[in-house]
Amino acid sequence: MELDGTNLNLEDGDFLSYRFGRRQSSIIFTSPANLRNGTWKLVGNISLTADKEELKVFQCAGHLYRGDEYIRNLEKDEYGKFNSLSAAGYELVQIHLSKMVQ
Length: 102
What we know:
Layout: E1 2-3, E2 6-7, E3 18-20, E4 23-25, H1 33-36, H2 50-53, E5 57-60, E6 63-66, E7 69-73, E8 83-84, H3 90-101
Parallel strand pairs: 5-8
Antiparallel strand pairs: 1-2, 3-4, 5-6, 6-7
């Protein structure tokens, strides 16, 4: 991965992680528009392993999803067991990526 001319060498199994408040996360939900228009460059991809497929499971406002598929309502005590849908605009994604380089 390259960010502002700095190469980040990631191996399969490595994740870029970022901190947002008290939460540490490895998943950023944002629009793919900057990938489509070339602002962000896609430098490669790998198939998801079964373990990584679980990254598609997330909760949003007390509801559990796998990708676009709705699964069920969650009990309040289950919220912390799943990744949260924390949508980020382009500028926030840029900030998180820039911090990963430092």
